[in-house]
């Protein structure tokens, strides 16, 4: 009889309980697949008496996750508490210090401390795995680290926050403004306690920074992710973009360019008929482009007890099978410090301007754009309820963002601009 | 300096040369990712003097792949010759007999001999990996075997023959009949030497049978795959299906049911706005459904030198990293013989009938359908250039295929049926 792999599970929220249930319900299946039993030895959570939808009576209980991490009757510390610092970090450090492998769903902790944790674990010959930290049940960390390991990765893109995608698609389908759908989402319990983690793009930015480290062999540099949330996306822009054949997504993009590593998590337009454009509701999608493989698209549930626990168990099973791949796909000490790209690669942009409806207004704007090197691919002028205002949509040719911003900054001086102009990048997918 | 992993590459067609190029061009990258160099020691192909787009001068040459497989200066035998039997099988057996790991892109060989080969390899502690055999560059074998290993797999579906999908989407977009697009595909070099491997669904059926073995822990049973090619799909049906919101795909489905293991590779209707329905051209897509993860969709290039070589290298890299997962995700000797499901799970069906345009014709048909327990969800009658013919489309409620076939067999006796009725399953995706 082979030795069982013994887990200590810290954090018994939906994902923790989901993980416990898979271990309990699929014990035989998992043993067939790994060749050894996987058992839970001990668990930990803040509140022992809380009613949980699983039988935990046969596991040792620890109030303190650090004590759990230090137990010598566990082989793998499964960290499902969350939070970049505090208990999760303390306990993970304790697990590494006492020679455990670690499986975690904690994107924030890894985005901020992943380099140090990986170095510490690898120095002791242990592994940290985090499939559940990125895009829920989609096996994207595995696809990137292993499935596409023969590729020079060119670009990683993704819609990796289901709440934002829910809000944006609901705005479009129901024709509702951001504030109203945000409130709906809050009432449905879709938002983090600090909603800015979702709608500010921070959570998705954490995930992107982890994928970028694997893809480009660079140290995780979340600080260098250009973050822009969805709070300023208007229903007008969603509608106008749709008229032009696009949808607006909170899109993460990481690519290595001649100017350095570009990482951004910002609202972008994507073609409505592309896989990313067609992604509705809370589903996640990650697109990986490699020099040999071309474009691979992965789609699935990005959150929820089942999908996230599925990813946790995939990591546990890999450890049980003996996989010892380093955290970020190569030894942490070999990861290089990326030079952050100061600016984004040039791209077409969507511009929405409201102009005074008088002769020559458009000419003045076009002149400024031309002078700043912003060339126009397509343009539409719309009727407006208020006859003194002429909404104008422009799709530019490939242009650096700086040139767009500079051109927009000159528009007020034309005297024909009404309100704030809107500029959104169009990502070619 | 760690020991290099030494490859012997048999077969120097596009995939073989693609693999050689990755080894040559990404040596440093791959070494960073695996911790050891990966080198090619020897190669083999039928024609040594053929002009190939790669420098092979530093590799030993073997005319005979069996001799290559037996060399004691290789660790991994990379089989890229193709063909279910003959040299590929002989050489793979020789590689296993002489203690090599095997990486292969050969779906036909594994579909027919995978069980015996896996048992032989595993008895000696060696592995066979075949990511490249299924859906080209998409890391689907890895996703199923490892990424979703904590799931009870409920269903695996896929469009896994790019040529068929090209033909079907080209028929729709150009409005051309099957025979014409088939001829185009032949001239473009998209078809196998024996085109029935593609359009008869055999190649895709091979792939499905391999995924089913992993998903359900069963012995590969290609013989039990219900195969129906695309040769009888008409442009009429493609158009009518589109009218009803569907597209026709050569869709593989494997699922474990109360009646046994159901495996089929047949034309099916899928909703036009689903990921499968939106799949255009030669791209492949695999959909995996697990009890915890829900639905995961994987999309990418299903063929071509780069994507297939990417998959080959992913397997090589996993071996270099020390992965020893059994061929089908659990020891071959543990795989169970599946009872094949005699019939498919009930599903809605699309029926196209041409009726004599006279009073009572539709009533007669509806009566027969009703008597056979085929209940109608939607129906449309179309005008026809020939006023004596009334084309009728029917979407049924969930019905067993047997009931459909039985009802259709009774229609000639009504005296109102013109020509052959068409019935195509609608798969809920």
Please describe what this structure looks like.
Two copies of one chain form a homodimer. Chain A is built from 14 helices and 16 strands. The first copy, chain A, has helices at 14-25, 27-34, 65-70, 86-97, 107-123, 140-147, 162-174, 178-187, 196-199, 202-216, 235-243, 305-320, 361-371, 401-410; strands at residues 5-10, 38-44, 60-62, 76-79, 101-104, 128-129, 153-159, 226-227, 246-257, 260-271, 283-290, 294-301, 349-356, 376-381, 389-396, 417-426. In chain A, strand 11 (283-290) and strand 12 (294-301) form a beta hairpin. Chain A folds into three domains: 5-133, Rossmann fold (3-Layer(aba) Sandwich); 140-302, Dihydrodipicolinate Reductase, domain 2 (2-Layer Sandwich), CATH 3.30.360; 349-426, Alpha-Beta Plaits, CATH 3.30.70.260. The first copy, chain A, is an alpha/beta fold and 429 residues long. At the A-B interface, helix 2, helix 6, strand 12 and helix 12 of A face helix 2, helix 6, strand 12 and helix 12 of B. Strand 12 (294-301) of chain A pairs antiparallel with strand 12 (294-301) of chain B, so a sheet runs across the interface.
């Amino acid at each position: 009889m082979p030795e069982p792999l013994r887990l200590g599970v810290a954090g018994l929220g939906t994902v923790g309980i989901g993980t416990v249930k898979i271990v309990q319900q699929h014990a035989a299946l998992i043993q067939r697949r790994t060749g050894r039993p996987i058992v839970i030895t001990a668990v930990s959570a803040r509140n022992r008496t809380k009613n949980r939808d699983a039988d935990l009576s046969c596991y040792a209980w620890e109030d303190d996750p650090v004590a759990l991490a230090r137990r010598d009757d566990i082989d793998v510390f499964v960290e499902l508490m969350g939070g970049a610092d505090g208990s999760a970090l303390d306990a993970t450090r304790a697990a590494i210090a006492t020679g455990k492998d670690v499986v975690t769903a904690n994107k924030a902790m890894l985005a901020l401390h992943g380099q140090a944790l990986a170095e510490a674990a690898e120095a002791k010959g242990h592994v940290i795995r985090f499939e559940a930290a990125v895009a829920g049940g989609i096996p994207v960390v595995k696809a990137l680290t292993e499935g596409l390991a023969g590729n020079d990765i060119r670009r990683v893109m993704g819609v990796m926050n289901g709440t934002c995608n829910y809000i944006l698609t609901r705005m479009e389908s129901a024709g509702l403004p951001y504030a109203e759908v945000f409130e709906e989402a809050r009432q449905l319990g879709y938002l983090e306690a600090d909603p800015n983690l979702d709608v500010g793009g921070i959570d998705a930015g954490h995930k992107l920074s982890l994928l970028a480290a694997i893809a480009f062999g660079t140290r995780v540099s979340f600080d260098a992710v250009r973050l822009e949330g969805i709070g300023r996306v208007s229903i007008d822009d969603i509608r106008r973009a749709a008229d032009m054949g696009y949808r607006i997504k909170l899109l993460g993009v990481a690519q290595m360019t001649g100017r350095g590593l570009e990482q951004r998590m910002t609202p972008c337009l994507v073609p409505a008929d592309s896989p990313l454009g067609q992604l509705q509701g809370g589903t996640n999608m990650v697109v990986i482009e490699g020099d040999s493989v071309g474009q691979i698209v992965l789609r699935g549930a990005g959150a929820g007890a089942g999908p996230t626990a599925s990813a946790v168990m995939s990591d546990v099973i890999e450890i049980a099978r003996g996989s010892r791949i380093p955290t970020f796909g190569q030894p942490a000490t070999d990861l290089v410090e990326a030079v952050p790209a100061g600016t984004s690669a040039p791209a077409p942009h969507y511009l929405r301007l409201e102009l005074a409806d008088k002769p020559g207004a458009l000419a003045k704007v076009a002149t400024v754009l031309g002078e700043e090197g912003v060339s126009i691919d397509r343009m539409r002028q719309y009727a407006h309820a208020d006859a003194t205002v002429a909404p104008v949509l422009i799709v530019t040719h490939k242009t650096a963002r700086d040139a767009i911003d500079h051109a927009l900054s000159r528009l007020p001086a034309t005297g024909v601009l009404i309100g704030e102009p809107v500029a959104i990048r169009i990502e070619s997918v």
